[in-house]
Amino acid sequence: MQFGIFTVGDLTTDPTTGQTPTEHARIKAMLTIAQKVEEVGLDVFATGEHHNPPFVPSSPTTMLGYIAAKTERIILSTATTLITTSDPVKIAEDFAMLQHIADGRVDLTLGRGNTGPVYPWFGQDIRQGIPLALENYALLRRLWREDFVDWEGQFRTPLQGFQSTPRPLDGVAPFVWHGSIRSPEIAEQAAYYGDGFFSNHIFWPASHTAKMVKYYRNRFEHYGHGTAAQAMVGLGGQVFMSKNSQDAKRQFRPYFDNAPVYGNGPSMEEFTSQTPLTVGSPQEVIDRTLGFRDYVGDYQRQLWLMDHAGLPLKTVLEQLDLLGEEVVPVLRKEFAKNRPADVPDGPTHESLVFAASRAPVAAASAGRNDLDTSAAIAPHRRATGAAFGLAGAGTTGAQR
Amino acid sequence: MTERTLAVISAGLSQPSSTRLLADKLATATVTRLADEGVSTTVLTYELRDYAQDIMNNMLTGFANPRLEEMIEAVTAADGLIAVTPIFTTSYSGLFKSFFDVIDNRSLTDQPVLIGATAGTPRHSLALDYALRPMFTYLHSVVVPTSVFAASEDWGSGDGGRVDSRVQTLPARIERAAGELSALVARSDRSSRVRDPFELPADFNPAGMFPPR
Questions:
Q1: Any idea where the NADPH-dependent FMN reductase-like domain is (chain B) (predicted)?
Q2: Do B198 and A184 lie within an 8 Å CB cutoff?
Q3: Do B207 and A138 touch (CB under 8 A)?
Q4: pLDDT of residue B201
Q5: Residue of chain A whose alpha carbon sits nearest to that of B59
Q6: Could you tell me if residue B48 is inside a domain?
Q7: Cβ B211–A261 below 8 Å, yes or no?
Q8: In a domain, B200, yes or no
Q9: What is the mean pLDDT of residues B5-15?
Q10: Quick check: A265 and B56 CB within 8 A?
Q11: Are B206 and A134 within 8 A, CB to CB?
Q12: Residue B196: its chain A contacts at CB < 8 A?
């Protein structure tokens, strides 16, 4: 199982000091946080993508390229990459390039984006969000998997004999998670391709996440990629910790009360009871997080939102220390208990290369070039339960 | 006996409230009409004041807490809806509008709705037709032709011994509206429908409109 953090990259005034970081300071803080993720022994750093203030990360692969050079082990990811308003050709190129730079430590989460004006700014229409996500991703997959692509769709200029460069590292496309809060269409899309499904999870009741994940798992099995329990599930989470539970509540309350997403709404107590937000001791965070498995099943990736709502960098780094020292080691141990052997680990470049090498015949005989990766993985999963590096696959430090 | 459910929403604020009083009268008249048709009706009445915090929290966070979610489920799954608001500043109250702002804008499609309003003066009666009716039309509800407005003075009007039979008194308007709503509720299968929140459009293709060859 993989643990990490995801950042929105918001530029928010610290309500306790009235200080707002500069864009430069915020961007540098995100880079520091990413390196801290590796230092404290977590596995994944993921950044959001935004094209409007108060958010700074408009260019995720630039940021992740820098982090790739400064780290050796962590997976660099996104939460989310806008598949609706970004050109799928540019996504294919940017992330294949990042794959080479980072020696494969790359995957991405696709999302639609919910900021209305961003769509027209990029020449699109928010009402076409789902069709854009479906069509753009269908093209993105082909660009990574076929050397020369002829393409015609509803939204983008047609392509004739186009080759996206560089080609994906080792001929294996980056793993893709599809992120959605409430659209069954996206869960269906993730299941259809045998890709991962990332549930934002935070800000919404757990019962909702449970239904979405269950739907995705059932459809994953329906499409023949493995059993429902073998589907690739990622979850968001949101925590604030202190050794003492009361201190955590006292320290976080001003940030909660003024946070852009839920500020001036329900009380922190109401919100923590209704959503996965946990404010308390490391042990409380451990207990709550282990509880996620009760309603989504054994899953592959847990990312937390840590640096938001104006929390200063120093506090975020302290939170990461607590995560790395006290929380994640226990979670690794506990999540491993009673985990069925045929449930895959979190995906890595090595596990995808291994899966592809094990099933070339299956891929060729599947007869559907849009399903090659999952076709390669599915029979292997059924045969040995060892896909995604559970046994025998080359493992990276992220697979611990 | 045929069974139906009828949801009643009152945005009245005071206790007792004339808005609630009108809502109850509309509900009673509708239930009586349905009983005459051999329909047994379960009435679910909600005062929005009891959910005011939940509604505003939903507005701010984007999700309904369990208490409000249960209420929304009950209202949207009912065979008919009676929605009554006080008129504030020439329109529905903010609380009334906020409730309809936070529910899924597809969730009242095809639902039979009877609208009512109260105010201190009859000069606000058109608010029903320029504010409430268009809102429910936007939501694709089926709003019955008769809406019922009760100004303070209407509570002092009787239904018998009318001086002029061309004047429709409040009880007469209630009866007419209840007749219209009950006819639609009697035919509704809404409360027995199985709703699938994951239902995809029939032409949905996960690979897009131009799937790979």
A1: 6-155
A2: yes
A3: yes
A4: 85
A5: A265
A6: yes
A7: no
A8: no
A9: 96
A10: yes
A11: yes
A12: none
Residues in chain B within 8 Å Cβ distance of A204: 62-63
Q: Is B25 inside a domain boundary?
A: yes
Higher pLDDT, A386 or A231: A231
Q: What pLDDT sits at residue B167?
A: 65
Q: Is A382 on the interface with B (CB under 8 A)?
A: no
A19-75 residue pLDDT tens: 999 999 999 999 999 999 999 999 999 999 999 999 999 999 999 999 999 999 999
For residue range B152-198, what is the model confidence (pLDDT) as tens digits?
999 987 655 555 556 678 999 999 999 999 999 999 999 999 888 88
Q: How far apart are CA A65 and CA A75, in angstroms?
A: 12
How many CB contacts within 8 angstroms connect chain A with chain B?
79
Please state the three-class secondary structure of chain A as a single string: CEEEEEECCECCCCCCCCCCCCHHHHHHHHHHHHHHHHHCCCCEEEECCCCCCCECCCCHHHHHHHHHHHCCCCEEEECCEECCCCCHHHHHHHHHHHHHHCCCCEEEEEECCCCCCHHHHCCCCHHHHHHHHHHHHHHHHHHHHCCCEEECCCCCCCEEEECCCCCCHHHCCCEEEEEECCCHHHHHHHHHHCCEEEECCCCCCHHHHHHHHHHHHHHHHHCCCCCHHHCCEEEEEEEEECCCHHHHHHHHHHHHHHCCCCCCCCCHHHHHHHCCCEEECHHHHHHHHHHHHHHHCCCCEEEEECCCCCCCHHHHHHHHHHHHHHHHHHHHHHHHCCCCCCCCCCCCHHHHHHHHHHCHHHHHHCCCHHHHHHHHHHHHHHHHCCHHHCCCCCCCCCCC
CATH of the domain at B172: 3.40.50.360
Chain A residue with CA closest to B202: the answer is A185
Parent domain of B170? 2-157+164-192
Reported pTM: 0.88
Q: Share the mean pLDDT of chain B.
A: 93
| Chain A CB within 8 Å of residue B209 CB | yes
| 3-state SS assignment for residue B75 | helix
A116–B contact, CB cutoff 8 A: no
Q: Which of A131, A265, A369 sits opposite B208 (nearest CB)?
A: A131
Which of A189, A215, A216, A238 is best to mutate for the B interface (most B CBs within 10 A)? A189
Please name each of the domains of chain A with its CATH number.
2-346 (3.20.20.30)
List the single residue in B198, B206, B208 with the smallest CB-CB distance to A215: B198
Q: CB of A150 within 8 Å of any CB in chain B?
A: no
Better pLDDT: A188 or A396: A188
- Cβ of residue B52 closer than 8 Å to a chain A Cβ: no
In this predicted model, what pLDDT tens digit does every residue of B38-82 receive, in sequence order? 999 999 999 999 999 999 999 999 999 999 999 999 999 999 999
The count of domains in chain B is: 1
Q: Say if B55 falls within a structural domain.
A: yes
Locate tokens 């999870």: which residue? A201
Of A184, A270, A274, the CB nearest to B200: A184
Task: Please give the ipTM for the structure prediction.
Answer: 0.84
Is A203 close to B63, i.e. CB distance below 8 A?
yes
User: Are residues B210 and A271, on separate chains, in Cβ contact within 8 Å?
Assistant: no
